Amino acid sequence: MSEEEIFQLEKRAFFSKTWLFVCHQSRFGKPGDYHAFDVAGISFFVVLGRDMKLRGFHNVCRHRAYTVVRKSCGTSTRFSCKYHGWQYDDKGGLVKAPKFDESPGFVRDENGLFEVKLIETREGLVFVNFDASTMKLPFNNVKSHVDLGNCSWVDGMEVTCRTNWKTVANEFSNQAQWSQSPFGWFSALRKSKIVRLLGPLSSIKELDDDLWCTMVLLPRSSSEVIVRCDLYAKEGQVAPAKTLEKRKWMLEQELMAVTKSGAEEKSLTGQRYFAYQCGGRTIDLFAILAQHQRSEKMAKRKLQPAIRLTGTADIDTEAEALCDALEGAADAPSLEMCSRMSSFPHTVEW
């Protein structure tokens, strides 16, 4: 398999059904605050509703899959698709669908945004899972070993690393193991800085006594990963601007060094291996990929857990005919071809 084929397999077998840390609840100060993310092409956003509950949604309009949220962050309790004006509320419900509301058989309640499973821990850590099979998935409570409940976000940045995501993930794992080792040569001279994994794509590290940083990997391709770095200060503590800029510069230099070492390592070995500790056991990525690949061979098709199946081909044909007719396409089929009640009670991906 090529590196790109392996990356797509990782997307189907790993990213699509693993609990992933994305941010801390302090990023959401008031109703409507939202943040958008992209993991291996899976675009989604997290928003704080007016009921003060965090929810995650796929960043895809149910009409024709156009992007709903276009900024990386902002504040809004309404999200509109610019293609045909479909509008959604902060609970993902469809509140406006021009020309469709009066269409026979169109059920507004069945065409809201696809929700992403989201869990917020007691420490305020926000995790998501894209698996569409069920909304009830077991979650191994990941602890940061840091009282982030008493911290608030103060600054952040994104660093683009031209390397495979596993290169940086391995570095996160190595740092976490080193920080917990009692045999470091400096252990007798100074207190070791805390570094902990928050799942396979993220870590939290102590920068200073009152300053922490979460680092989240957002893989883009087999050779590029975005690293989201967010800095948090303890409540009541003010981090000087010069200190924040220095820490951000140091984090960027660290990531660039990892990127360079990863390129050198690949030139020598030709491959990258990745495993991490979770819940007292080792999670082996290769084993997960091999199992998923076996399942795909048995099914004789690619298994993509994050994709929502909305109905049969007939339903999609009806939806397409309705869209074309409402847009006034010259060669659109007649609406008479669409049965009035037929299969529209099913959830349709418009």
From TrEMBL:
Alphabetized, the UniProt keywords read: 2Fe-2S, Iron, Iron-sulfur, Metal-binding, Oxidoreductase
Q: Which residues form the Rieske domain?
A: 20-116
Q: Which Gene3D superfamilies does the annotation name?
A: Rieske [2Fe-2S] iron-sulphur domain
One matching Pfam family is Rieske
Which GO terms fall under molecular function for this chain's record?
A: 2 iron, 2 sulfur cluster binding; metal ion binding; oxidoreductase activity
Record's InterPro entries? Answer: Rieske_2Fe-2S, Rieske_2Fe-2S_sf, Rng_hydr_dOase-A
PROSITE patterns in alphabetical order: RIESKE (PS51296)
Which PANTHER family does this chain map to? CHOLINE MONOOXYGENASE, CHLOROPLASTIC
What is this protein's name?
Rieske domain-containing protein
